[in-house]
Specification:
The complex is a heterodimer. Chain A is of the alpha+beta class. Chain A has five helices and nine strands; from the N terminus they run H-E-H-H-H-E-E-E-E-E-E-E-E-H. Helix content of chain A is 15%, strand content 24%. Classes of the chains: A alpha+beta, B alpha+beta.
Chain lengths: 267, 328
């Protein structure tokens, strides 16, 4: 194990949570290898920032449910998007603002729908990477969302889906994941940032220390944005003893919202 | 994408998948010794795509006293069952009102059955039936029935409908993993210290740590429990506890302790055996066994809840019926 250097890196990482530079690989770190010689990214990971509320820079603000008061308020964040505001087409920007205004009923997260990519990565829930030579699985605690990344036999998406169709490859230390075949139902965050079914995401997962990854996602969607843009953030290993994904089967928590109007009156 | 799918590979896999019929490592012995392949980490290799689709019932049917059918009897039973499914194609019949399973190869006969000469999955007790309930089990069953009655009709509210209709839990997700009518497909991936079993239906991924950790706190109750695994020789042994009382597998309680055993007995077969212990419910533990057969991948995303028009339409239909009845 390479735990000796860990203290220093961890301290650095935790003092700079949301704003770590994340562009590219940390100089020279080489991840441990799996038995078949690939960088070993197995483990439970989680983002430590406020991108789930808004991927762009934002001040603290009241939440959507006034009754929750301070406990439901939006925490501030420096944002994870590189370089300026999101390059929305004008009509798309208007739609984003409408999403935000009606987020209590429109946000797919509220309904426990599969969260899509890259949103699943930085929700306030852990996810686990399970690696084999042929497939890299990313299993999310939220809604049990699963991504299969095909490391061999790359194909075009056979149909649209919520989590997309992912083909992966290794570029040195970096797992590069190319995902297409999305539907137009998922968002990027609770602020209503969104995409169309033309979404194309290229993600880069790079170990930067034994307990941190650098995550980058480049978003291309000419129907919604005028140019591709990139978000980046560190991801942290869940290091506590016995860490494991727990169940967050949220369907039952959303049933009254979705089906409540169909309940037999008076019951 | 840069590379096109290798059709050859898929065909080869399909040929391996569909070959049913052999029916039986379960029937006991006699086969040439099979050497289980190893993963790069040196563990027995269970990886790949598997199905446990079967016509074999959990409990032995009334009137059957033997544990095994002959190959001919088993083939005849499969043929008859496949014919019943095939009748869905008959236009204008009652069975034709739903979409046609056979059209999408969702029916078992086309999807690939893991043939089995057993008369029931249950191998212990030896009569192939669930053991008698304990006194507490009888009481609990009655209390559950009473609670259901209090909750009102099945279609009064979504919460009264079956877990599978609500897209919360399918039988085949388990654990234990028992097949349903279709999509009984699994993908197994192994690392040095974890096994992941992806269940196609509702995209349920079971992640099983192999590091000897203790069970989680008993207050963490989960629909699918909490699993821990270990290797015993070439067999993967998975122990699961921490179930919720709502899971109620064949009436089980939150005290259920489940031990599953996965043994690869041939290139295309994993023998899957599980023992259920729940002293609150049954007077003794019981054990069942069924084969998992190699099938073709990949598994496509099964977004169940997201497209659950069925549940909403059923409820809307019943509400409309009630309104019409009230107006009469």
């Amino acid at each position: 194990m390479r735990i000796l250097l860990l203290g220093a890196t961890l301290v650095m990482a935790t003092t700079l949570p949301a704003c770590a530079p994340a562009s590219g690989q940390s100089a020279g770190y080489r991840a441990p290898r799996t038995a078949d010689g690939r960088p070993d990214l197995n483990g439970i990971w989680q983002a430590l920032n406020t991108a789930s509320w808004n991927i762009e820079a934002h001040a603290a603000a009241p939440g959507a449910i006034p009754a929750l008061a301070a406990s439901g308020a939006i925490p501030a964040g420096l944002g994870v998007v590189q370089g300026g505001p999101l390059p929305y087409r004008p009509e798309a920007l208007a739609r984003r603002d409408e999403h935000f205004a009606k987020r209590v009923t429109l946000d797919p997260e509220v309904k426990c729908y599969l969260p899509g990519v890259p949103r699943a990565t930085y929700m306030p829930f852990p996810f686990q990477i399970v690696q084999s030579a042929q497939h890299v699985m990313i299993v999310h605690e939220f809604a049990g969302a699963v991504r299969t990344i095909y490391m061999e036999n790359h194909t075009e998406p056979p149909a649209d889906s919520w989590m997309g169709w992912s083909n992966g490859r290794w570029e040195g230390e970096t797992l590069v994941v190319d995902t297409k075949g999305f539907n137009d139902q998922t968002w990027f965050d609770r602020a209503g940032n969104f995409h169309s079914a033309a979404l194309h995401v290229v993600e880069r997962f790079t170990a930067r220390s034994p307990e941190t990854l650098t995550y980058e996602a480049t978003i291309e969607d000419p129907q919604v944005f005028t140019r591709p843009w990139t978000m980046s953030m560190p991801l942290y290993r869940r290091v506590e003893a016995g860490a494991r994904l727990l169940e967050f089967k949220c369907v039952e928590f959303a049933e009254d919202l979705i089906y409540g109007h169909l309940r037999k009156p008076g019951t | 994408m840069k590379r096109l799918v290798s059709a050859g590979l898929l065909v080869a896999a399909a040929a391996g998948a569909a070959c049913a019929g052999a029916g039986g490592a379960a029937a006991g012995g006699g086969e040439a010794a099979y050497t289980v392949p190893r993963t790069p980490d040196g563990h027995p290799d269970l990886q790949g795509f598997w199905t446990n689709t079967t016509y074999t019932p959990l409990e032995r049917p009334a009137g059957i006293t033997k544990a095994f059918y002959s190959q001919a009897e088993a083939a005849e039973i499969e043929k008859k069952a496949a014919a019943v499914e095939g009748e869905q194609t008959e236009p204008g019949t009652a069975a034709d009102v739903h979409y046609d399973f056979t059209q999408f190869q969702l029916d078992r006969s086309q999807g690939g059955v893991a043939s089995n000469v057993r008369t029931a999955m249950i191998v212990d007790p030896p009569d192939g039936r669930l053991p008698p309930l304990t006194e507490e089990g009888t009481r609990r069953s009655a209390a559950r029935a009473e609670a259901r009655k209090r909750a009102g009709g099945q279609y009064d509210a979504i919460q009264n409908m079956a877990l599978s209709v609500r897209c919360i839990l399918m039988d085949r997700a388990g654990p234990p993993m028992l097949p349903g009518a279709y999509n009984n497909n699994y993908q197994i991936i192994q690392t040095r210290d974890h096994v992941m079993i992806l269940v196609e239906m509702i995209h349920d991924a079971r992640i099983i740590p192999l590091d000897g950790r203790p069970a989680v706190d008993s207050r963490v109750q989960q629909w699918m429990g909490s699993s821990r695994g270990r290797w015993e020789g070439d067999t993967l042994v998975v122990e699961t506890t921490n179930f919720t009382p709502k899971t109620a597998f064949r009436g089980s309680t939150e005290r259920m302790r489940l031990v599953e055993r996965f043994t690869r007995t041939a290139e295309d077969t994993i023998e899957y055996r599980f023992t259920v212990e729940d002293a609150s419910m049954w007077t003794r533990p019981w054990t069942a066994e069924l084969p998992m057969k190699k099938t073709i991948g990949p598994l496509f995303e099964h977004a169940c809840h997201e497209g659950n028009y069925g549940a909403a339409n059923i409820l809307a239909g019943v509400r409309a019926d009630e309104k019409r009845a009230a107006a009469r």
